[in-house]
Design a protein that fits this description.
The complex is a heterodimer of chains A (about 800) and B (about 140). By secondary structure, chain A is of the alpha/beta class. Chain A is about 50% helix and about 20% strand. Chain A is built from 24 helices and 25 strands. Chain A has an eight-stranded mixed beta barrel with strand order 17-18-20-21-22-23-24-25, surrounded by four helices. In chain A, strands 6-5-9-8-7 form a five-stranded antiparallel beta sheet, with helices on both faces. In chain A, helix 2 packs antiparallel against helix 4. The longest helix of chain A has about 55 residues. Chain A starts with a helix and ends in a 13-residue tail after the last helix. Chain B is globular, with a radius of gyration of 15 Å. In chain B, strands 3-2-4-1-5 form a five-stranded mixed beta sheet, sandwiched between helices. Classes of the chains: A alpha/beta (about 800), B alpha/beta (about 140). At the A-B interface, helix 2 and helix 3 of A face helix 4 of B.
């Protein structure tokens, strides 16, 4: 450590001032010495000159009269001066006087005389221009030098003293005005506590000068510094708080957080990360890697990290852990630069489970517990892939008459039926087989490894047998059955949609084939279906092309033997097929809403015909078949009334024929529709009575006018006693309810006589006439109907 | 004392002014071989430098009394110096004894007489006082 004094201002200043003073003094002293020496020499010369002046007039007299004694007196007088060394008085021809001072030094003794000898020419006292003698005076050089040095010493000493005093004064002034206040400030600065707000005091003697300003400046500066320090401290505190906060958030976050590089080295992670990923912290100590967690598919995570780093886009990946409890984690990766990613791990096990459940729900049929159509769609491609394309049989099973069960006994009964048959279905199959309910009453069965018709057939027969067993619902026993369509993979379809289509072809074929409840798919079915589709297209154009015809089958009054009306029946005059029977196209029309268009056409045509008959003076009525699809919205009573009005007809000219099934889907609406019709004056015929699932109680509930007994009863009436009894009962009941009865399918005289005996008033059938065009009908009307004699009987 | 001296001087000047118009002449004995002298020769003789005449005769200069206006006019016209200066000059020389001032006579008449009587005597008088017994060798005209 250097002595502080040596670093002090005082020391520096003193040294500087003394040094400067010394240098300046040296220069000045040298200059002054020279000047003084020169001055002294000049003075010396002048002094000699002045000496000569004093003796000049005497010398002049002495020389004028050549008075040696006077001259000698003069010389000795001059020699009394210490500066004079030798004096010579010389006239033109002789030396008048000469003198030397003893012990003196002359110029000839020193090589370079500092003071030259002085000589003066003396004039005659009476003639100003006449030189009479010369005085030569030589100086004492030692005395001259002594004088010079004496003067130099004196002057230099005085100057040195002056300079010394000035330097000392400057040092003292600096000490007093600069060093002392600065030291005082410094001492004050050391003693004050600026952070506590203490201020520096300026020394009293320096109020208002630079020292005071310096003090103020220092105070301002310390103030600023203290403020800055306080701000800095506050900021740091805030930062620490924030850091603690974030640290605490990081530590306590429910989500796992980690930072890892592209190689999976983890540089930072929190507690949740360890908990969520079951990360074995202790085992790997200093260099934890993502791979240490028990990922099931670690490579996917690494791939996601690579993609994240390369593209900079966030990545989200769901990963499963190899733990006892099923555990799913979602990892969201964010690129944090420097080939590093920041990962947020969250537990999505529950979400995954609910997703799985939801998926399960979505692919499962609630009622039966089988998979649904979606389930089948998911299952089959996987199954085929897993079994490496092993052949299989696809069965579509459809419950017979399920709609009717549902309609007549309610939805819950339908559900019960479904549950029962599904459990039976399951009982018919192996565990490896797959069951699905595709919707409604249709089931799909996948039989793995079944490639032959024989194998499939045995299963089909087993199923059909199971379905035929009666089902007990609310103490009612229902007999059902099923239709089965079978298609094989891969021959009938290489994927699910085509396989299902093939099976559906087979199923629909099975449905239409009464003799056999199951059908294997055959390519021809596709052709048939194609034709079916073509027919449907053509049917839709039939009205436009005016290909529909209305035929009339007369209704006969069995008592009076005359035609009272007719049933209007639609026929399709196909350009290439000829006359298409209703069975071949009405169901087709029923499948779509085209039946409504046909219904309207029929109604319109019937009205026209009625109007024609009325114009011809014929009192006939027409009954028109109404399809279930038309009721109630497609055929509102107002529309029919409007149509009748247009043709100038009254409501009683038209009768509407409905079947029992028409009303079953929505009884309330059907009943109100019927009531409206009857209020409007129409008569309602119940067609095909006795078939179907309706009970006799319907007759009471439905407001109808006429019951048409189904031809199946009439046909066998003359041979089957049961049928005859049934017909008799129906007629008796109708009579009791005030309903009229029309017997359908009357084909022989025997039936006529039986019906007459039973009291059936009206009949209809081939015995009288098949359905015929209007012109033929007119001819028939003119010709009249032949009735057998009332007494004839077929019974023996 | 000074005032008195000054007054005396003023009064003394009156006759001098009266005589100013007259020449001062240097005279020698008729028998003297010298007939003419230069101003320097006259100065040398009267102011003690040498007393030898060109004829080899030692001259004996004569001075008029110090109160005589002719004496003052003589030295004034001859050397341009006042009487006090001439007196100071002689004071320095008298000290060494090497030279002596001219002999004093009491009047111009006595001077005339001395010159007439003595062959080496040499004096000065106003021109009006000159008698035929003396020879004029140098003249000092009024300025």
């Amino acid at each position: 450590m250097i002595n502080p004094f040596r670093k002090g201002i005082l020391f520096g200043t003193t040294i500087s001032i003394v040094g400067t003073a010394f240098c300046v003094s040296a220069i000045f002293i040298l200059m002054v010495a020279f000047v003084t020496a020169a001055d002294t020499r000049k003075d010396f010369a002048r002094h000699m000159d002045e000496l000569l002046d004093t003796v000049e007039s005497t010398a002049s007299v002495a020389c004028f009269v050549e008075d040696k004694q006077l001259a000698a007196e003069l010389v000795s007088g001059l020699l009394k001066n210490r500066v004079v060394s030798r004096v010579v008085v010389q006239t033109a021809d002789k030396e008048l006087a000469r003198g030397e001072r003893a012990g003196s030094y002359r110029a000839d003794a020193t090589p370079e005389p500092m003071v030259q000898a002085v000589s003066r020419k003396i004039m005659s006292p009476f003639s100003k221009d006449k030189v009479i003698c010369e005085i030569r005076m030589e100086p004492d050089t030692r005395e001259a030098n002594r004088l010079v040095w004496e003067n130099i010493y004196f002057t230099v000493s005085l100057l040195a003293l002056q300079l010394f005093l000035v330097a000392a004064a400057v040092v003292l002034i600096v000490l007093y005005f600069v060093v002392r206040p600065i030291r005082a400030l410094s001492n004050n600065l050391h003693s004050i506590d600026a952070a506590a707000g203490e201020k520096l005091l300026s020394p009293k003697e320096h109020q208002g000068n630079e020292i005071a300003r310096l003090t103020d400046d220092i105070n301002n500066l310390t103030g600023i510094l203290v403020d800055a320090l306080q701000n800095e401290h506050q900021l740091r505190t805030q930062q620490e708080i924030n850091e603690q906060k974030y640290h605490s958030i990081f530590d306590n976050a429910g989500s796992g957080i980690f930072i890892a590089d592209v190689n999976g080295h983890i540089s930072s992670f929190n507690r949740s990360f360890v908990l969520l990923t079951h990360f074995p912290v202790d085992e790997h100590g200093q260099s934890p890697k993502l791979a240490h967690a028990p990922w099931r598919d670690h490579e996917r995570l690494m791939e996601a990290i690579r993609v994240c780093v390369e593209t900079g886009a966030n990545q989200s990946v769901d990963l499963k852990l190899d733990t006892e409890e099923p555990c799913w984690l979602n990892v969201i990766l964010t690129d944090s630069g420097n080939d590093q990613v920041q990962g947020v791990v969250s537990d999505i096990t529950q979400a995954k489970q609910s997703e799985t459940t939801a998926l399960q729900m979505a692919v499962t049929d609630k009622l039966t517990g089988f998979s649904n159509r979606l389930g089948l769609e998911r299952y089959l491609p996987d199954a085929i892939r897993h079994r490496h394309g092993e052949p299989l049989a696809m069965m579509l099973v459809d419950i017979k008459g399920f709609k009717q069960i549902n309609g007549s006994m309610g939805m819950s009964a339908g559900d019960t039926v479904l549950k029962v048959v599904s459990s039976r279905l399951k009982g018919c199959l192996k565990n490896t087989d797959w069951l699905a309910r595709l919707g409604g009453d249709e089931f799909a069965v996948v039989l793995h490894g079944v490639s032959t018709q024989a194998a499939a057939e045995s299963v089909a027969i087993r199923i059909i047998g199971a379905f035929r067993q009666p089902i007990e619902i609310d103490e009612t026993s229902i007999a059902s059955g099923c239709d089965i369509g079978i298609a094989f993979y891969p021959t009938d379809g290489a994927d699910l949609p085509s396989l299902l289509r093939s099976a559906e072809f087979a199923l629909s074929y099975a449905k239409t084939t009464a003799s056999k409840d199951f059908q294997f798919f055959m390519p021809e079915m596709v052709v048939t279906a194609e034709q079916h589709r073509k027919l449907e297209t053509e049917l839709h154009q039939s009205i436009q092309r005016d290909e529909l015809r209305l035929f009339y089958q007369p209704i006969i009054d069995l008592q009076e033997g005359r035609i009272v009306g007719a049933e209007a029946l639609v026929r399709w005059q196909h350009p290439t097929r000829g006359l298409v029977p209703p069975d071949a196209f009405i169901p087709l029309a029923e499948e779509t809403d085209f039946i409504c268009n046909i219904g309207l056409w029929v109604l319109e045509t019937a009205c026209r015909q009625l109007a024609a008959w009325q114009a011809a003076g014929q009192q006939l009525y027409l009954s028109v078949n109404v399809s279930a699809r038309q009721i109630p919205d497609a055929l509102p009573p107002e529309l029919i009334l409007e149509m009748l009005k247009r043709h100038g007809l009254s409501a009683d000219a038209l009768a509407l024929e409905i079947t029992e099934g028409v009303l079953l889907s929505d009884i309330a609406k059907g009943v109100s529709w019927l009531k409206e019709l009857r209020d409007a004056g129409f008569r309602v015929y119940m067609d095909d009575f006795g078939t179907g699932y309706s009970s006799l109680s319907y007759l009471k509930r439905f407001p109808i006018d006429v019951v048409k007994v189904d031809k199946s009863f009439i046909r066998d009436m003359d041979e089957e006693t049961n049928d005859r009894v049934l017909v008799q009962a129906i007629i008796a009941m109708a009579e009791a309810l005030g309903l009229q009865v029309v017997a359908e399918g009357v084909e022989n005289e025997c039936q006529i006589s039986l019906l007459r005996q039973m009291g059936c008033r009206y009949g209809q059938g081939y015995y009288f006439s098949k359905p015929i065009p209007a012109n033929e009908f007119d001819l028939l009307k003119q010709k009249g109907i032949y009735l057998p004699s009332p007494k004839s009987s077929c019974l023996t | 004392m000074l005032r008195r001296y000054f007054l005396v001087c003023c009064f003394a000047a009156i006759p001098a002014i009266a005589a100013a118009a007259d020449d001062i002449v240097v005279i020698v004995n008729q028998k003297t071989a010298v007939n003419k002298m230069s101003r320097d020769e006259v100065i040398n003789i009267f102011l003690g430098r040498n007393r030898q005449l060109s004829s080899g005769v030692t001259a004996l200069p004569l001075d008029l009394p110090s109160t005589s206006p002719e004496r003052e006019q003589f030295y004034s016209r001859l050397t341009g110096k006042s009487m006090s200066e001439i007196n100071a000059y002689w004071a320095r020389l008298i000290f060494s004894g090497r030279a002596s001032p001219p002999s004093l006579v009491h009047s111009q008449e006595e001077a005339m007489q001395m010159v007439a009587d003595n062959r080496s005597a040499m004096g000065y008088v106003a021109r009006s006082k000159v008698a035929p017994s003396v020879k004029i060798i140098f003249e000092l005209h009024p300025e």
